[in-house]
Amino acid sequence: MNIQELKRGLRGAAIEIFDPASRQICDDLVWNGRKPQLRPRYVVRAAEAADVARAMAFAAANGLSVSPRGGGHNFTGIALKGEVVVDVSALDHLQIDVRAGTALVGPGVTNERLAAALARHGFAFPVGHCATVPVSGYLLGGGVGWNAGEWGIACFSVVGVDVVLADGRLVHADDEHHPDILWAARGAGPEFFGVVTGYKVRLFEAPKAILSSVHVYAPGDAAGVGEWAERAMRHAPANLEFTVKVSAPPPEANAPEGAFVLAVIATAFAASEAEARAILDRLFADAPATAMERMDAMPTPFDVLYQLTSVSTPEGKRYAVDTLWSDASFARILASMVADYARRPSPHSFALVALRSPNAKAPGDAAFSRIGEVFASVYTIWDREADDAANMSWLRRTMGAIEPVATGTYVGESDLERADRPVSIHSPAVVARLAALCRLHDPHGRFRSLTGPAAARPAA
């Protein structure tokens, strides 16, 4: 099959590298303002699953590697690493089966759209914290989303996937058919050996109330906040989400240059407003009294949560992000983040340190295999290309300080550009099983590893 034959068979479109619009099209495939220099030979914009199968047949016939692309939100630009990019963002079908409590979701459906559609029917799902991220790579990488303590990591609520394999076959995988493919689709991320064209997910009853409390502290209170958090979360219910955000104060605060604060953010997903208030009251009962600002038990339905999170990640900026799981002391990790944050090159950057409830739902058997009590992430955000090196260096120093206590990293927000990464995305057993499945389902390496050799290394 040549490119002309491919174009004639598509409902969508195919763009070649020498097309005048190719450079802009490739840049538009990556959400990050920091665009990779990679340029794929072909971009296939799929309009249906059959287009994906045609693109795979074309790649196989011409010995080309393939990168699936959902929303292009991965901060390292892995969507452009294949010689053929298969863009599935237009596959955005959404069908909710109210009686069965399931939904069929296309890879192009965004977190925000899914949450809103489910809410109209009294359902919910552990959608991601970023509104505009589609479910494509989010679910494939595991899915650390809202209320994950109670509902679990999102991929474990995926009960079926439609996948185009390297040879162009479209298969449906569930617990009875191709269970090995379903196992891999739950967390393999860029190590997956196919293109997902549809997910079937199990839904949850929507919480009747979602309330959030925010207490803002000065950096000097970090030790007290960390020690209190460890005590307070020891008996916290699974439906309580707890995070400390380290960031510059909002512009309206007129704070001096370099100033930053610690915002303790707790959100309860409950069956009633009274239950949510009680959870938050218990949590903050003995919180440090030095809070500079308090906002207690605010109603925060999903649309409001997305409004709040979107402010921190404006489109068009240059981004680099990294995350680590750890079972070490929350207070220790928070203290390390605060110390390094003071040396940040950009005022736009921020850090998040989340603490899971000990009652949180544990992951099952799947490719998703790295987790910890603490989830630490750094979002490095800046404006100018000239500042790339300084910001990347700061990110790696900051995360390097806590790497010795890491249990792993989360592929959806991992610094995949590091070739010497000492912390792994998958456990050694999962790495071995994924490698065997790749040899079976992708013997010619169409989906070449996009995460590099660090994916196979054991955790520190």
Please give a handful of descriptors for the protein shown.
460 residues, alpha+beta, eight-stranded antiparallel β-sheet, five-stranded antiparallel β-sheet, 13 helices, 27% helix
Structural class per helix/strand content? alpha+beta
Oligomer: single chain
- From the N-terminal CA to the C-terminal CA, the straight-line distance is 46 Å
Compute the gyration radius: what is it?
22 Å
Mean pLDDT: 94
The largest sheet is:
8 strands, antiparallel
β-strand number? 19
Strand content bin? 15-25%
The number of helical segments is 13
Residue runs with pLDDT of under 50 for 5 or more positions: 452-460
Helix content: 25-40%
Shape call: globular
Kindly report the spatial arrangement of strands forming the biggest sheet: 15-12-14-13-17-18-16-19
Structure description:
There is one protein chain. The chain is built from 13 helices and 19 strands. Mean pLDDT is 94; it is low at 452-460. A hairpin with a 4-residue loop joins strand 8 (158-165) and strand 9. With 460 residues, it is an alpha+beta fold. It has helices spanning 3-9, 22-28, 49-62, 111-119, 135-140, 148-151, 179-185, 222-232, 273-284, 302-310, 330-341, 388-400, 428-441; strands spanning 13-16, 42-45, 66-69, 84-87, 94-97, 102-105, 123-124, 158-165, 170-173, 194-202, 204-205, 209-217, 240-247, 261-270, 293-299, 318-326, 350-355, 374-382, 406-408.
